[in-house]
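I hope you will forgive my troubling you with a question about protein structure. You will find the record immediately after this paragraph.
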Amino acid sequence: MNIKQQKQGRIIGLGLGPGAIDLLSVRADRLLRAASHIAYFRKQGTAGRARTLVAPIINDTAPEEFAMEYPVTTEIPVSDPRYNQHLSEFYDNCTSHIAALSDAGHDVIILCEGDPFFYGSFMHLFTRLEADYPVEVVPGITGMSAAWTATGLPMTWGDDVMVVLMGTMQTKKMLAALKSADAVVIMKIGRHFQSVKTCLLEAGLAERAYIVCYAAMANQAVYRLSDYRDDTLPYFSIIIVHGQGRRP
């Protein structure tokens, strides 16, 4: 580590788990209680789910806060080049702010829902910072782990192959992945629910599928796919298909 790095404050991607404060790790809890600077992502006009989750811990310690507000969420399609342009500029600006805090000698904790290295926004900061700054990562329980636990059934057995899919992916690609898997997790579904459901039906997995909304949160709800009647799903929803593989 060079002299500059020794003077820099740490940047810590802190996994908060699926949404219940008692599912934070002991390490995450300890770091939060000692935090002097925190950063977190949120949609414009909201408090931010990560910030809301840790409120009981940090309200008394009152760290300096940096709210990173997404410039776009669903207003522009992911396929539109403007989407990546807006987000790239956004992550560049967030990185600059956090880097300046580190250069001033401050430790900065970045709150991450779920696990920082699993489909999270923190990863875009990590790739911009890790070459020049002391970045640490504290893992967290993933939302999918909370979701399959909520169903009350084991997720994988023996040699089961599990795939994690995004509801936003092309139908042809999703169908091929479903047909090759023994156990399935589907995330980021929302308004794509009907096309996801069609793929599950065609793959012969619909009768085994469960929908879990707000896993591990106070308003958690679990449904059999065949019993769910709405056309869309809430943002925090995951579809689970359990494996049926080898067992003694």
Residues 1-5 have pLDDT under 50 and may be disordered.
